[in-house]
Amino acid sequence: MYFGVDYHPEHWVFPLAGTRDEPESRWKKDAELMVGAGLNVVRMGEFSWGLVEPEEGKFDFAWLRRAMDVMQQFGIKVVLGTPTAAPPLWLAKNHPEILPIDECGLRFHEGTRHAYCRNSDIYWDYTGKIIRAQAAALGDHPQLIAWQLDNGIGGHRTEFSFNPETRRDWHAWLQAKYETIDRMNDAMGSRFWSQVVTDWDHVPMPMNAPTVHNPALVLDWMRFSSDTCVAYIRCQAAILRELTPSIPVTTNLRALTRHFDHFDMADVLDFVSVDSNATIKSRCAENACEIDMLRSLKKQNITTPDGDAGFWVIEQKAGHVNWQEVNSLVRPGVVRLFTYQSISRGASGILYFLWRQPRIGSEQFYGGVLTHDGRGDNRAFQEIKQIGEEMKLLAPAIQGTRVSAETCILYSHENAWSLKLPRQPNKHFVYREHLQMFHSALHDRNIPVDFARPTEDLSKYKIVFAPSLHMLASGEADLLKLYVQNGGTLVATCNTGLVDEHHIVPDTGFPNNLTDLFGMEVREFDPLPVGEENHLTFKGNFPTSHLHPAKTWCDLIEPKECEVLATYAKDFYAGRPAITMNTYGLGRAIYIGTMSHQYFYYDLVAWLRQICGVVPLLKVPDSIEVSLRERDGTKIYFLLNHQNSSVRLMFYKPMHDFLTGQTISGNYDLPPHGVLVLDERAALKTDAQPPPQNEKVESVEALGDLENVP
Ligand code: GLA
């Protein structure tokens, strides 16, 4: 398993480190410290363009090669970043047209990263040249194990530019999609507000305008901008696959924030890498949701440097960030906890951002593995050293293991974009929050879950959740029907099928193309203001632990063949169905016409577990997160205590703890932010050992048992 850091050797030369006579002498010290912390890989070079090509055509990769040589002396492998995320200043001076233009028509200036227009032919040319030069100079280095393409693509709205070349490509994209202008006018509904065109060149980019643009046009613009980001990375990948065919390519992604289709991006890569701010997140479930999403981007054809499955967290924050109002220290044990959270949910490589707190530049006060002084006796270093030691024990055991889920949440970026368009029925409907309620209900009950696009093969999942597929293409609807027809259980919700892929509202009833699947029709919907609630009255076998409100959105459902599971309690639609279930083929289609509080989703999952035979991994106290990685009958459980106090667990059968090598049985107090990595079979072999003495017995939560529960 690869375990490492993001290293910037260019920061650590004389006069910032080293000596006048040996300006690069610090690199050895760094490598020595890295080995001491159990690290075996660095990522380097991702912002180095101005240094490796200080003048146009004059390349100097020698220093980067020397840095790689130092790593070689210490047995540390290298991931090289292509340096295109930070174009050199000479390039912008010589070719100002590469600078992106914003939606107001103003040109951004040079001097920071990502100051480039991704539709610029000149930028593509220079990208090709620098990458070819980099591959020629460094591609044969024995330490090189992967390329990272660009860095942190997107963000700060750099997915979009409004340059003349963007306009040219936009029109070509529309032409390729619609072929004729009439077809485009019809599909986009451009007869509204005089938007009809007779020439491709007249189609606007959605720039700053007095009021909102045509939603169909904006949706296409998002698709086009996404395709542009993906094409740029694909172009880099193609060059490197030609020049260094045995070196896998990746790029670093963030879940749910950047404006491009991450599934499309993952298709271009050999493996997915992730930037994680986990350590500053207060809710472990939110972070788990993001990890599950990122793990799910690429489910097959994965090639990682060591041949393992999964994804890498190529930037796991080693401490605090520098952009919050108050950048408090990350508490002891938290980096370790979140490192294990990533591993437990499928990561097969972890690199910390960043090796040492920089003395220069705009990230000076970011947390690092080392503090500014570089001594290596600091708290973060010690914590990572501990993880490094643990990784040596754990890596052989988890090699080749995978997370496997029987449940799945559908997510499409196009739908997410359509839900972010202005003029929604309820601007307080937040898709991410809705999604999170479903994910939390599964996560908090220790039920593994994947994400998938609606177009994927869903047949392996027992339950598929489809929160608010507001924009649903007819092909997607057909696939959902097929899934249920063949025995699947689909759970959909309000705000589904309101528009088709062209953003046209159906005239055949809501949810579009699915009224037969759900055996009902949504005749109207009532968005509720914040603070206003209806209530749900349940019928039949649906078990409820609380009173459940109906919030944000209430669908008024006309039942046909479906069974009614719950009705609204008040208002003019009191007594009308709020939740329904329909049998369709061999499966069932459940529709929840509203949103509720988290407890409702817990109850929903408890009920679905029973009717679909889905078993949570282990029964443990609520604050413990459990995940499982498995391979050929080997099951490795991860138990994470996200609480600031210890939690008592009761082991009814002995289990082998990979991190200490001991067998645990009976009562065990998992310390604050503590982690257990356990395996049942190994313990059975060693159950002659006495259980460890628990010295610290503190006040504890309810006892959990570590039996599988039905
Ligand atoms: C991104 C970038 C890094 C750094 C971090 C800071 O992930 O890739 O260079 O700026 O953000 O969080």
Summary of the model, kept short:
With 710 residues, the protein is α/β, with parallel strands linked by helices. It contains 18 helices and 25 strands. Helix content is 30%, strand content 20%.
Distinct small molecules: alpha-D-galactopyranose
Largest beta sheet, briefly? 11 strands, mixed
Number of β-strand runs? 25
Computed structural class: alpha/beta
Output mean pLDDT: 94
Radius of gyration, rounded? 27 Å
Task: Give the distance, in angstroms, between the N- and C-terminal Cα atoms.
Answer: 34 Å
Task: Describe the model.
This protein has 18 helices and 25 strands. With 710 residues, the chain is α/β, with parallel strands linked by helices. Strands 10, 11, 12, 13, 14, 15, 16, 17, 18, 19 and 20 form an 11-stranded mixed beta sheet that branches. Strands 5-4-3-2-1-9-8-7-6 form a 9-stranded parallel beta sheet. Strand 18 (577-584) and strand 19 (587-592) form a beta hairpin. The protein binds alpha-D-galactopyranose. Residues 151-152, 252, 275, 315, 321, 353, 363 line the site of alpha-D-galactopyranose.
SSE topology:
Elements: E1 2-6, H1 26-36, E2 41-44, H2 49-52, H3 62-73, E3 77-81, H4 89-94, H5 121-138, E4 144-148, H6 164-178, H7 181-188, H8 215-243, E5 249-250, E6 252-253, H9 262-268, E7 273-276, H10 284-296, E8 311-317, H11 334-344, E9 347-353, H12 379-398, E10 407-410, H13 413-420, H14 431-443, E11 449-452, E12 463-466, H15 474-485, E13 489-493, H16 515-518, E14 520-527, E15 533-538, E16 549-559, E17 563-568, E18 577-584, E19 587-592, E20 594-595, H17 598-612, E21 624-631, E22 634-641, E23 647-657, E24 663-670, E25 675-679, H18 680-685
Parallel strand pairs: 1-2, 1-9, 2-3, 3-4, 4-5, 6-7, 7-8, 8-9, 10-11, 10-12, 12-13, 13-19
Antiparallel strand pairs: 14-16, 15-16, 15-17, 16-20, 17-18, 18-19, 21-22, 22-25, 23-24, 23-25
Helix pairs in contact: 5-8, 6-7, 10-14, 14-17
Bound molecules: alpha-D-galactopyranose.
